[in-house]
Amino acid sequence: MSRVIEDKAADAVKPVRPIGATIFMAVLALAMIGYAVSVVVAARGATDWMMVAPVAAVGVLALGFAVMEDWREAFARAAAGVAAKREGWKSSLPALGFMALLVAYVAATPFVGFDLATMVFVVASLILQGERRPLVVAGIGIAASLAIVWLFVHVFAIALPTLFL
Amino acid sequence: MIDMSAANDGISLLFGDAQAWIVVPIGILIGLVFGAIPGISISVAMAIFLPATLYMDFLPAILFLTAIFTGGGFGGAIPAILMNIPGTSSAVATAFDGYPMAQQGRHSEALGIGLAASVIGTFLGYIALFLIVEFVAEWVLRLGPTEMFVVALWGLTLIALLNTGSFAKGIVAGMIGILIATIGYSDAGQMRGTFGSMYLLDGIPAIPALIGLFAASELFNLIGRDYLVRDESLRTVSMAKIVGGMKDAVRRPLEIFRSSAIGVGIGLVPGVGASIANLAAYGVAKRAAKDPASYGAGNPGGVIASEGANSSSEGASMVSLLALGIPGGAGTAVLLGAFAMHNVTGGPRFISENKDIVYALIFGNMVQAVLLLFIGVVFVRFAGVIVKVPLRILAPLVMVMSVLGAYALTGNMVGPVTVVVAGILGWFMRRYGFPVAATVVGLLVGGMAEGELVRSYQVSGGDLSFVAGRPITLLLIALLVLSLMPRLIVNLRQRGKPAASTGDAS
């Protein structure tokens, strides 16, 4: 149990200065404000904004508190001399690479079909994660991915756009 | 209240029809398989197999579909426990503790606990249906928008419970979920946040969004690791441990009974169902626990609460179908379709004129629960092998299944795009300490909360004194406040003390 808590704690970044978190929260606040304003401006009556506007207001307020908490915690750690780790973008590169592959996969699917796009995505993901054995790459990348698409199309009768299946 | 003569006729009808007992095990297996595939919801499975019931008699047809319902109810727990991907929205809370148990190598135990809680929950749900079907049919009609809004608010209070880290970040995460739920056409007919895209008119699809928030963001985190369970010695699937988990669940009758009672209570309300029941039962279990901090870190009580509630709500959701002819959720909507295919109309007249069939359905589903025990234990034995698959192979394949499942749900690219966007958002949220579970709760409850708020406003004309004339609303508000008191008291007591825990339920 303790290992899971450690893992979860390790997932959350606690750097010297929580700049990344602050930028992320600023983006969230802007999105909330922008959405609420667009709803209120186009509203014809209270029923159009009565949920969105208060929720966005609470969200932005809570974001303000969260930013203050993060900075206060960072200053407290610095004052106590607790070693803080860097934001660690280097260690996140495989995850970011996988995300980029996923975005490319979903973007390409309408043009090349799920069968071909899935095959390329799985092969590229295996290579990204360090799999170099040709049989595994070919077996999993081609056979397994095509089997999954075939299952959805022909067994579950779901009309997926495909190139050759 | 119970017509014993009709009940006897129901038993004769049920056991006099051999076809029913041929299709039921097949239905359970279909439900388990489909429930275990992320993105293929139980209702989708039921809809796919609905045409197969055309040439069946009415009773076997409905039992076949309810068998898919029953099997799918537990099937959704399998990927929730093994991969942190709730196969269905009713298994969201199962992942909160089931997945940490799997990471600790206790996946066999978690699967056994989930199965036992599901079986007992299903059984208790149908017993409740047997006892209350006639009485509740009359009572449910009294619930108006103000009462439903309070029920939705109760669901939203889970946001506070699901986060033991930063309270502000928990609130932010919940608000994000609610705002996402309001995108698309509102109940009042306003188009919001669609950026002019016709694909977003129906809003952000909830299930692909929760797949993205939970599964995709977790898969991003797993990239670079070798196996789901780090310790090789724990990477075994043990029938003894599955059975041990089942025994563990049976040794906690009060927890199962409590979650089943919550599942029944919530399942009775049309439109709410198992998606809310599992979260509400989880919240209550955590609140009532001696060690609430252990919830979210692999406490078996969390799996029991979620699985007991989502399974028992199935029986209760049949009340509105049988008694009112109103589907309580997507699954019962398909059942209503099967009723129509067989020229049967649910509602008060159906109950009064076909009591034997109603009781046969109830008894048939109780037997299904027992069958689920045997079929499910074999199924999880094979499903559990997943922990032995290297993550570099598992991650892309699970991602592909999530994307395909999302496409199956929406019928267009909105589903896959939602998975990707929600996954990236979820990854950043996890990175900066926001509980994605609270976002999912907001997402699932937000639409309902807004709809009922608007209807309450329209019915009352904006006059708050309207609530004073609604005794059921007042009672529900009192219960809501009472349920929040323990957390508030704990917060007040902890004020001034240094924070001891940083864990959350994300």
Protein architecture, described:
The complex is a heterodimer of chains A (165) and B (506). With 165 residues, chain A is an all-alpha fold. Chain A has 2 domains: 2-80; 93-155, no CATH class. Chain A has helices spanning 2-11, 19-42, 46-49, 52-80, 93-128, 134-155. In chain A, α5 (93-128) packs across α6 (134-155). The two termini of chain A are 45 Å apart. Chain B has one domain (4-493). Chain B has a two-stranded antiparallel ribbon. The model of chain B is unreliable at 499-506 (pLDDT under 50). Chains A and B meet through α1, α2, α3, α4 and α5 of A and α10, β2, α11, α19 and α20 of B.
Topology at a glance:
The complex is a heterodimer of chains A (165) and B (506).
Chain A: H1 2-11, H2 19-42, H3 46-49, H4 52-80, H5 93-128, H6 134-155
Chain B: H1 4-15, H2 18-36, H3 42-49, H4 58-75, H5 77-83, H6 92-103, H7 107-139, H8 145-156, H9 158-161, H10 167-181, E1 184-185, E2 191-192, H11 206-222, H12 239-250, H13 253-267, H14 274-288, H15 300-324, H16 330-341, H17 348-353, H18 355-383, H19 391-410, H20 414-431, H21 436-460, H22 471-494
Helix pairs in contact in B: 1-18, 2-4, 2-18, 3-4, 3-16, 4-15, 4-16, 4-18, 5-6, 5-7, 6-7, 6-15, 7-12, 7-13, 7-15, 7-18, 8-21, 8-22, 10-21, 11-19, 11-20, 11-21, 13-14, 13-15, 14-15, 19-20
Summarize the structure.
The complex is a heterodimer of chains A (165) and B (506). Chain A is mostly helical and 165 residues long. Chain A has helices at 2-11, 19-42, 46-49, 52-80, 93-128, 134-155.
Overall outline of chain B = globular
Portion in beta strands of chain A = under 5%
**Average residue-wise pLDDT of chain B:** 81
Run of helices and strands of chain B? HHHHHHHHHHEEHHHHHHHHHHHH
The biggest sheet of chain A amounts to: none
Total strands of chain B = 2
Radius of gyration of chain A: 23 Å
Percent helix of chain B: over 70%
What class, by secondary structure content of chain A?
mainly alpha
Uncertain spans of chain A: 1-10
Total DSSP E strands of chain A: 0
Beta-strand content estimate of chain B: under 5%
Strand order of the largest sheet of chain B: 1-2
- Going by helix content, strand content and strand pairing, the class of chain B is mainly alpha
Cα-to-Cα separation, first versus last residue of chain B = 45 Å
Mind describing the biggest β-sheet of chain B? 2 strands, antiparallel
**What form of chain A results from the Cα inertia axes?**
flat
